[in-house]
């Protein structure tokens, strides 16, 4: 049971929002008995819905023998409790549902820490439990040993103490990630980040480019924990490709905050690939939601909309387009140099995309004359691997022996990374 209460917003029709809510429920194996839109003319502080609407929901629950009601919107703790009393069934809202999905999907220790912190932040304002229904229906998914059970017995002070401990552990994760990024800067390899609305095809593209085996299914939030792999590009010997969690409209603020450490990979990326499901009728609205999250992360300037790194927009699932819509989008794509049509499933457009990324990473490269000791094989090899060596020869004697001169084409960023090797 999934009534949608928000109506058309951001150009998205209520039926499309309802279908997305259905997809969220299906993503964790729930059987959706019925789903419908309820126009909300007036918000009732105690129950959100009016009495007549509650009676309709109750009747549908009885008819379909539904055990759970999902409200695709935000419920206060009081509204959730009152609805449960009236409907005699478990009720959760959109935030609770997304937290359920993240709780099931988090595979790494870091992911579990982030999800638990987000859940505690959400749960401390709840007056009722919001986790036991899935444990009863599906046997539970071992989410941190069942935090729902411990939270209902814990008082606010215990929750706050636990949140403080989690934040300290996540701070350590953030510091570790910063060290990893610093090492990559010294290595160094450019970082390419995949971002996009959930189920846009990021993981399918990631697998095609890297040969990895990341979960890629037709499910919302199929990927949660970030994955990174090395790839080769035209003109670039090695780059790091990072697959990130999918964005979604009305992503709970608790999750945005909790996953900031993970999403910092996006803020440090040299190139951002925005993967769009261009065959989805709501693709334009999904793009706005993704850009909004990037703005919250500081990747986009709030006022100017300028990005800290080049963004290449990938119009994925191009093979699903037909008729006039395909022709219209093809004309638009030809006019925008930052747009590339492709199909991660079939491989269409992949060579053009790799060529374009390579050009973005090598744009602005200048020729530098660099002199290094002939015995410093690691730095000479680095220049050959990460730049275009135009000429190389002897450069006489130095204090510590023979020197080698290299004329190398490097971007400003690569030259800075080379300079950091001396640090």
Report low-confidence residues grouped into runs of 5 or more: 1-8, 127-151
* Helix content range: 40-55%
Radius of gyration: 25 Å
CATH class of the largest domain: Alpha Beta
Number of helices: 16
The profile of the biggest β sheet is: 6 strands, mixed
Helix-strand topology string: HHEHEHHHHHEHEEHHEHEHEHEHEEH
Task: Give the total of beta strands.
Answer: 11
Can you characterise this structure?
The protein contains 16 helices and 11 strands. With about 425 residues, it is α/β, with parallel strands linked by helices. It folds into 3 domains: about 1-185, 3-Layer(aba) Sandwich (Rossmann fold), CATH 3.40.50.11060; about 190-360, 3-Layer(aba) Sandwich (Rossmann fold), CATH 3.40.50.300; about 365-420, no CATH class. The longest helix is centred in the middle third of the chain and has 31 residues, at about 155-185. It starts with 13 loop residues before the first helix and ends with a helix. About 35% of the residues are buried. Mean pLDDT is about 80; it is low at about 1-10 and about 125-150.
